[in-house]
Amino acid sequence: MDALDGWTRSEHTDDVAGRPTTHPVWRRGSGPGVIVIHEMPGLTTGVIAFGQELVDAGYTVLLPHLFGPVGRPFGNADVARTFPKVCVSREFTKWATGVTTPVAGWLRSLARELHAELGGPGVGALGMCFTGGFALAMMVDESTVAPVVCQPSAPFIGPPGRAADLNLSPADADVVRRRAREGCAVLGVQYASDPLPGTRFDTLAELIGDAFIRVDLEGKGHSTVTEQRSQQAVDAVLKFFGERLHATA
User: Fold this and answer.
1) Can you provide one Gene Ontology molecular function annotated for this UniProt record (predicted)?
2) Is there a contact between 64 and 12 (Cβ–Cβ < 8 Å)?
3) Average pLDDT for residues 235-243, to the nearest whole number?
4) Nearest-CA neighbor of 146 among 183, 103, 97?
5) pTM (two decimals)
6) Residue 163 pLDDT more than 50?
7) To 10 degrees, what angle do helices 45-56 and 231-241 make?
8) DSSP per position, 28-73
9) Cβ–Cβ contacts within 10 Å for residue 116, how many?
């Protein structure tokens, strides 16, 4: 059985790094909109299953496919094949600090389109691992009102400074600070023992203060809502979306 049976495929096009770029988008459900951005290596069965949990909770869920395979279980071989392609893509920042990933503009456009269709207060966005910070970058646009940052791992940790970097330009960081001051909270979820997010949650707390809702999970793991799924993490996400999307819809 295809993991995406019951989901409807479409495409979305917008400018990325100076060129029109099209990515497939799968959709299912009804209710307020949530965009789930998959982790490395692609749109895995774990990501799809989490998207279905959100559908079952009463959301219109979009699953954009940005890179890697579709509909396969997580596998290290897929990571090995996908990683080099992501590293040379102009759509993503991997190493540089103090810059926003170029694909953020495409994701903001997708969020605006979904918000225009569904109305309400705005849409939720959730990124994870390599795309963890993408949801934060989407917050720069007013259409995203419930950003969730799961185990953000870009830019890749290496020389000093990268482990604390939020994958945001200074201008975008200023907008995030302003929107947080105006009431747009950010949820962050990570395993406390996971080295890949570095100290980014400390940086985010410094940037937006009490508007940052931080969840540090006990135990060992990385993928908080997929491969090492934590019910505490999923419950925190559902509560966050419910308070900011359902309660005011």
Assistant:
1) hydrolase activity
2) yes
3) 98
4) 183
5) 0.97
6) yes
7) 50
8) E--SSEEEEE--TTSB-HHHHHHHHHHHHTT-EEEEE--SS-BS--
9) 9
Total count of domains within the chain: 1
End-to-end CA distance of the chain: 35
The two structure tokens encoding residue 126? 């959730």
pLDDT over 50 at 249, yes or no:
no
Question: How far is residue 175's CA from residue 209's CA, in Å, rounded to a whole number?
Answer: 14
Flag whether 2 is in a domain: no
Q: Would you say how long the chain is, in residues?
A: 249
Taking residues 205-214, report their average pLDDT. Answer: 98
User: Cβ distance 142 to 55 under 8 Å?
Assistant: no
Residue 200 structural domain: 8-246
Residue 136 to residue 127: CA distance in whole angstroms: 8
Q: Is residue 245 packed enough to be buried (19+ CB in 10 Å), middle (13-18) or exposed (0-12)?
A: buried
User: What is the token pair recorded at 17?
Assistant: 């790094």
Pairing of strands 123-128, 144-150: parallel
Please write the tens of the pLDDT for every residue from 23-38.
Answer: 999 999 999 999 999 9
Average pLDDT of the residues in 100-121: 97
Write the pLDDT tens digit of every residue in 59-98.
Answer: 999 999 999 999 999 999 999 999 999 988 999 988 889 9
Confidence of residue 159 (pLDDT cuts 50, 70, 90): confident
**Tell me, what CATH number does 21's domain have?**
3.40.50.1820
Q: Is residue 3 part of a domain?
A: no
**Residue 177 forms part of a structural domain:** yes
